[in-house]
Design brief:
Blueprint: H1 2-13, H2 22-31, H3 40-43, H4 47-59, H5 63-88, H6 94-105, H7 108-116, H8 118-130, H9 140-156, H10 158-178, H11 182-207, E1 218-220, E2 228-229, E3 232-236, H12 251-266, H13 270-276, H14 281-299, E4 304-305, H15 308-314, H16 316-332, E5 334-335, E6 338-339, H17 347-365, H18 367-372, H19 396-412, E7 418-422, H20 423-432, E8 438-442, H21 446-455, E9 461-466, E10 481-487, E11 490-495
Parallel strand pairs: 1-8, 7-8, 7-9
Antiparallel strand pairs: 2-3, 3-4, 5-6, 9-11, 10-11
Helix pairs in contact: 1-5, 2-4, 2-20, 5-6, 5-7, 5-8, 6-16, 7-15, 7-17, 8-9, 8-10, 9-10, 9-11, 10-11, 10-14, 12-14, 12-15, 13-16, 14-15, 19-20
């Protein structure tokens, strides 16, 4: 079911890819490198790249075609994981568990994660299968399954690792304070120790990295700044950050973005979440770090967890179970149109919340058509559209032109030349430019990239950008560049001083 739903936008966008990071994954697949150094085994989310690189080495062809199958498969893994968690952890019936999977499959937040955050999608899918084995960790089978799946979750993505370890240590601490199930807590802590060791080594190597050299044709101009706080790579000063996604003029701008994104994602069914909330230690411990990550930037904007919007997207996992439980209440705990537990929600309103949520998800599924024709959809909300990855870093109509521009550069760049590529064009260059051509990568400041190239005495300095301003990324072609070749809206420029 999940695979079928997620295949819809892939078919609508065919043959183009969807999602910002999808180009990055295609470039990694073509590059064929999973671990540039042994430390990457602990410091990178390498499981999905290992799978995709291996499959690409076997099947070859167009990497985007393979990704059009892998992305829906990962979403299917997550939908199946929702069913598994509901059955094994919560003890729900098959029918209710299937309904939970269906509701998850059509939510805006879950679809957004699956769009191009493929490592995150894999990690969360594995996490859904890992957590229920907490209940059977005393058995040999449960212990072995938990050890294996917890390790795979850590290798898949950092957010899955953080969630897993927070839940495990929360359960152990909870049991210690309540003085109950201490033997089971010891088994759980022992089963989680391999994952904990890998995670701890990764943290250590991030604070004290082993420096190594990797031959590459990409040089970083270094203007991107994610404003890490005090050397802690996972904390961000949101009032100083300046990237393609995070760029806030004031605290009010940040707060407005947080409120609007949460409202778009969860306001349609938040009353079902409140009504369906029930005490479950695993779900409570899962929800807590997500709320801190999603809203912590409002309390401590100068020192909050990075990528607050990704934490907010992941709230869809526990919220799905609470909302479905709220819908179950109409048959199990319903009295005259009002729940006995306190939140006034009529059956008619509950159905309206459900269908509105599904409608928003369906609109997002139709993005490839809506974006290229009538220009309406979720991406039309200016305050939050930057958090939704729609097209593959450039509008669908420009994909072919970008590929043609890279082909032209392959034929016309000399050995001593370079091309300036903004972050949105970087993976296109890695994918289609020959390895002997040097790429100067920048994020915000074209002038800084030009100075960087001139200081290194490159011959000709090229630049790829739109010849018609479309308002993306806040960059315009500065003085000193002349247009050499046009490919519809995309042009190749050269710096002449």
């Amino acid at each position: 079911m999940g695979f079928t739903v997620r295949m819809v936008p892939e078919l609508l966008a065919f043959p183009h890819p969807i999602g910002f990071d999808t180009i990055y994954y295609a470039a990694v697949m073509k590059g064929g490198v999973v671990w540039p150094h042994w430390t990457a085994l602990f410091t990178s989310s390498w499981l999905f790249p290992a799978i995709s690189v291996s499959l690409y080495s076997v099947f070859g062809g167009d990497p985007f075609t393979l990704l059009k199958v892998l992305a829906p498969l990962l979403f299917g893994l997550n939908v199946a994981g929702i069913f598994w968690f509901a059955r094994k952890m919560l003890g729900w019936s098959v029918r209710t568990s299937l309904f939970a999977g269906l509701f998850f499959a059509f939510q805006l937040a879950s679809l957004r994660i699956s769009w191009d955050l493929l490592r995150n999608t894999l990690g969360l899918g594995l996490l859904l299968f890992t957590l229920p084995f907490i209940k059977s960790v005393n058995s040999k089978r449960g212990f072995a399954c938990f050890v294996l799946l917890s390790l795979l979750s850590v290798f898949a993505h950092e957010y899955a690792a953080v969630t897993l370890l927070f839940v495990v240590f929360g359960l152990v601490l909870w049991s210690g304070l309540k003085k109950e199930g201490l033997a089971k807590s010891k088994h759980l802590l022992f089963a989680c120790s391999p994952a904990l060791v890998v995670f701890a080594v990764g943290i250590f190597l991030r604070f004290f990295p082993v420096h190594y050299m990797v031959e590459t044709n990409v040089l970083r101009a270094g203007d991107a700044d994610y404003a890490s706080v005090g050397g802690f790579f996972f904390l961000t000063n949101y009032l100083s950050v300046k990237t393609s996604v995070d760029w806030y003029a004031s605290y009010f701008d940040l707060a407005l973005s947080v409120v609007l994104l949460f409202s778009l994602l969860y306001l349609p069914y938040i009353f079902l979440v409140l009504k369906g909330f029930f005490k479950n230690r695993v779900l409570s411990l899962w929800t807590a770090p997500l709320l801190v990550g999603g809203f912590g930037c409002l309390v401590f904007p100068f020192c909050a967890l990075e990528y607050w919007y990704r934490w907010m997207f992941m709230l869809v996992y526990p919220f799905t179970f609470y909302a479905v439980n709220g819908l179950r209440g109409f048959t199990a705990n319903y009295d005259g149109g009002v729940f006995r537990l306190g939140v006034n929600v009529s059956e008619r309103k509950a159905k309206g919340m459900f269908f509105l949520t599904v409608l928003l998800g369906s609109v997002y599924l139709a993005t490839p058509i809506l974006m290229g024709t009538v220009n309406v959809g979720v991406f039309a909300f200016n305050s939050v559209n930057r958090y939704f990855s729609f097209a593959p870093t450039v509008p669908y109509e420009d994909v072919g032109s970008v590929v043609e521009a890279m082909g032209w550069l392959n034929k016309n760049m000399g050995a001593g030349d370079c091309v300036l590529l903004q972050h949105a064009f970087l993976s296109w260059g890695r994918l289609y430019l020959d390895k002997q051509h040097v790429i100067v990568h920048f994020e915000n400041d074209v002038g800084l990239a030009v100075d960087f190239a001139l200081e290194r005495s490159f011959g000709r300095v090229f630049f790829v950008w739109w010849n018609t301003p479309i308002g993306w990324y806040g960059i315009s072609v500065p003085e000193g560049f002349v247009r050499l070749e046009d490919f519809d809206r995309i042009s190749v420029y050269e710096f002449v001083g």
